[in-house]
Amino acid sequence: MIHCPVCAVEMREVAAHANPGQMIILDQCMKCGGIWCDKWELFPVQTDEGVRLEPVNEESLREIAPIDDDNRILYCPRCTAKLLTAKDPALPADLQLHRCMKCDGIWLNRGQFTKFKAQQKKIRSSKLGTETHAQKLAEVMQNPKSWVVTGTQGMFAYPRGEEESDETVQSSLKEAAKLVLQTLARMLIGI
Ligand SMILES: [Zn+2]
Ligand SMILES: [Zn+2]
Predict the structure, then answer these.
(1) 38 C-alpha to center of ligand 2: Å?
(2) Pairing of strands 23-28, 97-100
């Protein structure tokens, strides 16, 4: 169990819908409503999930004062490293996410998850085809095996060499997908 970097209370695990058939477990503070995403968790979550997750426990949220977090230093709930503010020209100025440079986790104050996802949706729809691309990559990340077996067509079809063992194909696929996804994620987060 990890603790909220803002309130220091224990956070609760919440399930968020990702790509079809996948759930991602995020950690949410029931006091301030902030959400912690471990590495790779933020990007694949469906764009409307913030709206569903963030209004939790409205009553206790009303009791606390808004966080004046501009100068406050937050620490990673996983590895206690200092969280840095990620500045991204692709994101609105009021959407400053906190990221751990050590474990790559991301902290989102209440409301930021919804904003981030709205922006992600906007970026995706302005770049035709990017969404499909990103979703496919996330699927590969999650389960490269099923992807190879079902034989996805087009740009994602992997030419299966005779000499290569399945293990090599899959691990190199995973590595390649990881790199591309990392680049995409960096473009969005701006690191
Ligand atoms: Zn909190
Ligand atoms: Zn960390």
Answers:
(1) 8
(2) unpaired
Residue 14 in this model has a pLDDT that exceeds 70: yes
Q: Compute, in degrees rounded to 10, the torsion defined by CA atoms 52, 54, 55, 59.
A: 150
Residues 33-46 have pLDDT tens digits of 899 999 989 988 99
| Residue 53 and residue 67 in contact, taking contact as beta carbons nearer than 8 Å | no
C-alpha span between 105 and 72 (Å, rounded) = 18
Of 58, 39, 20, which Cα lies nearest the Cα of 139?
Answer: 20
Question: Distance of CA 17 to CAs 83, 107, 156, Å?
Answer: 26, 18, 23
Residues, CB-to-ion distance under 5 Å, ligand 1: 4, 6-7, 29, 31-32, 34
**Alpha carbon 84 to its chain's center:** 16
Query: What Cα–Cα distance (Å) separates residue 131 from each residue in 65, 123, 147?
Result: 37, 9, 17
